[in-house]
Amino acid sequence: MPVNEYGQPVGDPVQWTPGQPLGPVTLTSRTCRLEPLGDTHVPALYAELCVESPTEFWRYMSVGPLVDRETFAVHLDTLRARLRRRRCARV
Q: Which top-rank group of organisms is this from (predicted)?
């Protein structure tokens, strides 16, 4: 059996090819639906997170409070762009 540079057994070499790149999907179950964050979500999210939430909600956040819907939309765009650049899945 082959060993690595530390003398540990590593098994036989395998023929491996990467799978298809991961992309956005919608997951639907009996009780909920998870879908990629889109522009259609901005008004409701802004209302719940920025208008209706108490100031304490933002205490441990790295941003905020976000004072208007445009600022909130720009923040969400930044988060979505960051997710698009990721090459691996978060589990």
A: Bacteria
